[in-house]
Amino acid sequence: MSNIVQYIVVRSDLRNTLNWPLGAVIAQCCHATAAVMSLHVDDEETQTYLKDLDNMHKVVLEAKDEAALVKLSEKLKENEIKHKLWIEQPENTPTCLAIKPYVKEAVHKYVKNLKLLK
């Protein structure tokens, strides 16, 4: 597989401050990832990424809170980086965002200051 990567960014405060169960946080990542893949299923990089299922490369990063996640989403929109900001219902709370698969060099600069989720 080429150097195509998918970044997922989830709020770390969901567990650390708001005490969400780990499974609920993982579900947010799954929702955002499934949604962005569905929205961009016909995209060339997404198709290339999906052709080699056993070698997909995902990186899960953390945003410290809702404000940081929304700010990242806005920055991605400004730069036409395709992504899905997952907003959990019925709470109407942004929890996670998934960027569609891209060649790493095209998107790494937008997430390079984020830490791996712990």
Topology:
Elements: E1 4-11, H1 13-16, H2 22-39, H3 44-50, E2 58-63, H4 66-78, E3 83-88, E4 93-99, E5 102-103, H5 104-111, E6 115-116
Parallel strand pairs: 1-2
Antiparallel strand pairs: 1-4, 1-5, 2-6, 3-4
Pfam family, one: PTH2
Enzyme class: hydrolase
InterPro entries: Pep_tRNA_hydro_II_dom_sf, PTH2, PTRHD1
Q: Would you report the number of β strands?
A: 6
Report mean pLDDT, rounded to a whole number. Answer: 96
Q: What shape does the CA trace take?
A: globular
Return the domain count. 1
EC number: 3.1.1.29
Keywords: Hydrolase
Protein name: peptidyl-tRNA hydrolase
Organism: Drosophila albomicans
Structural key phrases:
118 residues; 6 strands; 5 helices; Bit1; alpha+beta; six-stranded mixed beta sheet
What do you see in this structure?
- It holds the Pfam family PTH2.
- Keywords: Hydrolase.
- It comes from Drosophila albomicans.
- GO terms for molecular function: peptidyl-tRNA hydrolase activity.
- This is peptidyl-tRNA hydrolase.
- The protein is α+β, with helices and mostly antiparallel strands.
- The protein has one domain (4-116): 3-Layer(aba) Sandwich (Bit1), CATH 3.40.1490.
- It is 42% helix and 26% strand.
- The protein contains 5 helices and 6 strands.
- Strands 1, 2, 3, 4, 5 and 6 form a 6-stranded mixed beta sheet that branches.
- The longest helix has 18 residues, at 22-39.
- The two termini are 27 Å apart.
- The model has no long low-confidence stretch (mean pLDDT 96).
